[in-house]
Amino acid sequence: MDQILEYEPPLNHDGEGGLVSLLGLTKAQLTEELSRFGVEQKALRMRTAQLWQWMYHRGAADFTDMTTISKDMRRELSAVYSLARPEIVSRQISEDGTRKWLLRSAPGIEYETVYIPEESRGTLCVSSQVGCTLNCTFCHTGTQKLVRNLTPYEIVAQLLIARDELEDWPEIGVGADGTRAITNIVMMGMGEPLYNFDNVKTALEIISDGDGFALSKRRITLSTAGVVPMIPKCGEEIGVLLAISLHAVRDETRDKLVPLNKKYPIAELMEACRNYPGLRNANRITFEYVMLKGVNDSLAEAKELVQLLKGIPAKVNLIPFNPWPGAQYECSDWEQIEAFAEVLMKAGYASPIRTPRGRDILAACGQLKSASEKVRASARR
Question: How far apart are CA 338 and CA 332, in angstroms?
């Protein structure tokens, strides 16, 4: 290959030692980058495919592992590029097997990702922002001010790290039946994904690509608190399953729990759901409903929820409130949660009660929060 003498790196994450990370680029961007680097036109497609498979199918974290690429090219690539993951600040394992990692990709940029093992699947809960702007009063992340959006690199790296940690790559992570530890992705970690639309879209394009991670879009769920104008765009351009953090059936209650409701009230949100692109029984919308004692858990509200859902292929996840330090709410009594669920089930809506996971390490729904604070741009460099 002919090396470009005055190389200008892409606007992407700076890796270790000032190197530029190739992680987080789409296939088209990777091809463009390799062209700028000096790969001949006739070899671009092959080189892109080789790197893509090594990075996202086999989990290579070093160019020296890429044995299908010549030693000379591996050496030249490693002089400019990096495949390094973010730093793992801490690892925690719950008594129920749930795992939580606190990651740091730059000074002041820390975020959490959670792996939830179940009998039939393994779900990775992925963050899209450091902090959040929504200030949902039942959510621990809502008490942390927004630091910034996560880049495609930082979003994709959460899956890379989880697969590294779980030894979930083909050569070392496949059991006798060929199953994977991570089978599903939920964009339900820190932040509002639809307020970081472009980066989330790019990351999910990489994650769902058939030549890499190969996770079907039917195994990826994006959760939003109700950014109504972005919901149609999510269906049209990302095409994953949709979850709505509903949590109330009346505007006066939801205004307090999810302040975004003041901008996009329930009626507008439900109309956007009815018109979600690709909506059908096989691609139902999941409505998340945290159970708060004396706040939103009456049987009258269960009946109102049934009316709200009319005409929408849907299921409802009932989430027992997971406490966190300083929380102002209590979890509904278990008998009340079951009675609430029965109203929904009699109306024909699946309404599983989510088993709390990882509470002891603050890894359960609504408990994620990092210690990141805004820092001067010069301190991040």
Answer: 10
Whether residue 334 is found in the same domain as residue 285: yes
Kindly write down the DSSP assignment for every residue of 116-174, as one continuous string: EE-SS-EEEE---EES-SS--TT-SGGGS---EEPPHHHHHHHHHHHHHHHT-SHHHH-
Structurally, the chain folds into a number of domains equal to 2
Q: With 0-12 CB in 10 A as exposed, 13-18 as middle and 19+ as buried, what is 280? A: exposed
Phi and psi angles of residue 90, each rounded to the nearest 5 degrees, phi first: -155, 155
C-alpha 320/C-alpha 7 separation (Å) is 54
Look-up of token digits 């091809």? 31
* Segments of the chain scoring below 50 in pLDDT: 1-11, 172-176, 366-368, 376-381
Question: How buried is residue 259: exposed, middle or buried, by Cβ count under 10 Å (0-12/13-18/19+)?
Answer: middle
**pLDDT attached to residue 15:** 52
The 10s digit of each residue's pLDDT in 87-112 is 999 999 998 899 999 999 999 899 99
| pTM assigned to the model | 0.89
**What domain range includes position 63?**
16-82
pLDDT at site 174? 47
Query: Residues 206, 311: one domain?
Result: yes
**Catalytic sites, residue numbers:** 112, 365
